[in-house]
């Protein structure tokens, strides 16, 4: 397998809900594994997601997990997930779903460099950037 770069997102007890939402947005195959499935059956984290992976038809991979009790959960502003390409319909569809219930900081519109670009934070607190190359909008 070739090397690849993909986001791994930590959630505070919302990993299952968030990853199922991302599967609705992007489609694909989602695997979810709990802490209990890996031996922590008596743990308060037993039903939390220890690891999840979404493989989409477009070739995207998104991974995530819940932060177990005793570990610090500090959402930050130093990571964004970036979607880019030239399929305007596909990327607009993703944008519409990701922005719904979230906060748009930069509307998805034509920018000075000629592409459509937007930034939002989804309802789970994850920052997204969408860039549509060579868009005619």
TrEMBL record:
<dbReference type="InterPro" id="IPR028973">
    <property type="entry name" value="PhnB-like"/>
</dbReference>
<protein>
    <submittedName>
        <fullName>PhnB protein</fullName>
    </submittedName>
</protein>
<feature type="domain" description="PhnB-like">
    <location>
        <begin position="5"/>
        <end position="130"/>
    </location>
</feature>
<dbReference type="Pfam" id="PF06983">
    <property type="entry name" value="3-dmu-9_3-mt"/>
</dbReference>
<dbReference type="InterPro" id="IPR029068">
    <property type="entry name" value="Glyas_Bleomycin-R_OHBP_Dase"/>
</dbReference>
């Amino acid at each position: 397998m070739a090397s690849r770069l993909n986001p791994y997102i930590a959630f505070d007890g919302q990993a299952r809900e968030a990853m199922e939402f991302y599967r609705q947005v992007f489609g694909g195959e989602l695997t979810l594994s709990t802490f209990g499935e890996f031996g922590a059956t008596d743990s308060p984290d037993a039903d939390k997601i220890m690891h999840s992976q979404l493989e989409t038809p477009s070739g995207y991979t998104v991974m995530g997990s819940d932060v177990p009790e005793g570990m610090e959960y500090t959402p930050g502003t130093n990571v964004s997930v970036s979607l880019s390409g030239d399929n305007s319909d596909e990327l607009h569809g993703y944008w519409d779903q990701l922005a719904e219930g979230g906060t748009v900081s930069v509307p998805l519109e034509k920018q000075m460099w000629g592409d459509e670009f937007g930034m939002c934070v989804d309802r789970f607190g994850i920052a997204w950037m969408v860039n549509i190359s060579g868009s005619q909008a």
